[in-house]
Design brief:
The chain folds into two domains: 210 residues, Rossmann fold, CATH 3.40.50; 190 residues, Nucleotidyltransferase, domain 5, CATH 3.30.420.280. The protein is an alpha/beta fold. 35% of the residues are buried.
Length: 429
């Protein structure tokens, strides 16, 4: 059996560098040959390097079983492989075993900690856009199977296939914005697949709206701002902001315990400069204060605290309010702290409107700037979205956070940052 590969498929299979690890993502539209290419590469590696151990996975096992595994079997049929002679499939162990000793495990990534004991030669990821970044990082650490002397020109490989992202996520950050030389993103429009039925793409063009067609046929990433809570934010709003010990230090607080998120800023009459953030899991108000004092131990200007109005209420766990705790803690180090908060929190839509207006007003003037150190705040700016067709913010559920712990940082940093803007530059809706 001979395959005549498409341009993107050849680019996906071949390694253009000399690093010991290759990480490649095949980002394609419907029918662009994504899963075909991934499963073919898995088989080629198993045949070329006897005794290699590979892992094929997706966020759900249903996707692995019904899509990726079936494509492996289709390749076997095309190659004339016979089960029981050339390979075996173990339903109990969920793995393919080749006659040369190579094996490929098929797993879901819903519980990634169960994969930490594996030592692997390659990993294939189905629908990578659904897999959390933490899972990807864990899989990188599993690329440590002992290399056999007979494996000539061996490279560890992580290869994935996925549809383009609707919004700017970790794949964009890792493979486009901050890509390393051994990290490759291969784009494969459906229109390049010459083996599809005649008029297939034309029918899809008539069926889908323009944006959907661009993503799922032309393999272009989505309009990153579409559906996002924060709009108008651009590279002009990102800059290096130097902390100045003689300026007023504004600390704007969200008092959620896990995580607790505070943003640090300087401001002028018409501009705000977010230069650092405190985003700590399972902590207390006093511990957050101590972290600020550790980072900035010699502040000379005022300390002004803005933030959640509910922080001025006593809780069942303390006789003091959060703001009293902050004042007491900073007073221990000789700082007289001002608390500047509203008597009650305005509706979130007011705070978001104020934040967006400060990013860029109707005249195009920027009044809000963020340093790259504020990673969680930027994560919110690029990812916090509305439910489709509504003005309700899509806040992750407990189950979603359980699968992807990074989601717990959605909303809280934005809450903290927006309290400050709304206090000094409120908008009445």
């Amino acid at each position: 059996m001979k395959y005549k590969l498409l341009r993107a498929q050849r680019e996906f299979l071949e390694i253009p560098h000399d690093y010991s690890l290759d990480v490649a993502v095949y980002q394609g539209g419907y029918g662009s040959g994504k899963t075909f290419s991934g499963s073919l590469l898995g088989i080629l590696l198993a045949l070329k390097f006897p005794g290699i151990r590979g892992l094929v996975g997706a966020q759900t096992y249903t996707l692995v079983r019904d899509t990726t595994l079936q494509t492996y079997f289709e390749h076997f049929d095309n190659m004339g492989f016979v089960e029981g002679k050339d390979y075996e499939w173990s339903t109990t162990l969920q793995k393919l075993i080749f006659k040369n000793g190579s094996e490929i495990l098929f797993r879901h990534f819903d519980e990634p900690n169960k994969l930490k004991s594996l030592n692997l030669g390659f990993v294939e990821i189905e629908e990578m856009s659904e897999v959390p970044y933490n899972t990807f990082k864990m899989l990188l650490s599993r690329m440590r199977q002992k290399i056999k002397p007979t494996w000539k020109n061996f490279r560890y490989r992580i290869f994935a296939h996925t549809n383009p992202e609707f919004k700017r996520g970790w794949i964009y950050d890792t493979f486009v914005k901050n890509s390393a030389r051994n990290y490759r993103l291969i784009t494969a429009p459906t229109t390049e697949n010459i083996y599809l039925p005649e008029n297939y793409c034309e029918e899809l063009k008539n069926l889908y709206d323009e944006q959907y067609y661009k993503i799922f046929v032309l393999a272009q990433n989505g309009e990153y701002h579409k559906g996002l809570v924060i709009n108008g934010f651009s590279d002009k709003n990102i800059c290096e902001i130097k902390y100045n010990q003689f300026l007023d230090l504004h600390i704007t607080c969200d008092f959620n315990v896990d995580p607790m998120c505070w943003i640090l800023a300087h401001k002028t009459e018409d501009k705000v400069f977010y230069f650092d953030e405190i985003a700590i899991e399972n902590t207390t108000t006093a511990q957050a204060c101590e972290e600020i004092l550790r980072r900035y131990p010699a502040h000379k200007g005022k300390i002004i605290v803005n933030g959640d109005a509910s922080g001025d209420n006593r809780s069942c766990t303390s006789e003091y309010t959060n703001y009293v705790i902050i004042k007491k803690k900073f007073l221990e180090y000789g700082y007289d702290t001002e608390i500047q908060i509203k008597p009650f929190n305005p509706p979130i839509k007011n705070r978001i409107a104020a934040f967006n207006a400060k990013i860029r007003n109707a005249d195009g003037k920027c009044g809000l700037f963020v340093d790259k150190k504020c990673e969680k705040l930027l994560y919110n700016i690029y990812n916090l979205s509305y439910y489709e067709g509504s003005s309700k913010i899509n806040i992750p559920t407990y189950q979603q956070i359980k699968q992807n712990s990074e989601l717990k940082f959605l909303m809280h940093p934005m809450d903290a940052a927006s309290y400050l803007v709304d206090y000094y530059w409120p908008i009445k809706l």
